[in-house]
User: Fold these one by one.
Assistant:
Number 1:
Amino acid sequence: MANSSFTGTGTSLANYALLASPTFTGTPAAPTAAADTNTTQLATTAYVIGQAYAKLASPTFTGTPTLPTGTIATTQAVDNNTTAVATTAFVLAQSASQADIETGTSTTEFVSAGRAQFHQSSAKAWAKLGVSGDVTLGYNVPSCADGGAGITTVTIGTDFSTANWACVVGGLGSGTTVTTAKAISCSSQAAGTMVLSAYDFSATPVLEDPNNFFFAGFGDFA
């Protein structure tokens, strides 16, 4: 009959591992399985390293790495211009604010579609207007009002920051002679409204409707 206290040649069995649920000490070694082995064979440290898995801390990827949707990573500081992984939070933080776009000096921030109009080079409002109080087409011009012969009052949707903005005007006349040409002017300019007037080029100029008014406004939004 087997006896667990049998010492054999005098060496205690306590120095040997059990076959079932052994507890090793020291630095046990085992044969290293081939890469991608998927069995119950012991995995040595050499096997794990040979699988070429990335470390959790500061891994360096090669090839063309992909990440599952929703992968969480450390967000880098704004303007980090390295090969570090960019999280969604990092990307959104690179979006230029209204003030950044108005300043127009950053070369690292991107401009989102909803903020492009804040740049100084962009028209904040523009339109082609009829003479009967109709906006034929335009941007940030919800309405205009017929003020009589040669006059229309324009309403800006989102106001300028002040009344000090540049108004570029023009018009489409109804003929080619001097008397049917039109001189267009802008007056009563406020942050959210202004008046367009059209005069003919006769010896005694009079207000006269063009076929259409045109204008574009440049400046700062509030």
Number 2:
Amino acid sequence: MIYRSEYICGEETLGMSSDTIDSSSPMHGKVLTPPVISVQSDAILMGRILPSLRGMILEQLAKIVLAHKPQNWFCIYLCTFILLHNCSLITRHSIEYAQKHGLKVSTSFVYSFLRAFGEHLSLHY
């Protein structure tokens, strides 16, 4: 879902065959999920589920950070690390996707964005 290939497990294959991928692919021999199902599940996740969770998580993190309590340092550090790590994973995927499809990648923009994001988070300490 979203950033990785999915495949069908079990006997029901929704009419898909396992010979759709070349032999050099890591998904060779697996029955891939039909693209429509992947798009629909991504749309539900990104349009309905993640926005409400995003708001809730950022609101709670802001409360913890702005409380300025020393006992919260590890929670803040861990949350910041997870957010920055997620940004790096998404960035890596975006760069690989662009390169895979022959698109030009402006890495200076990506790195400047990540640096600004990291500096913004570190200002709360």
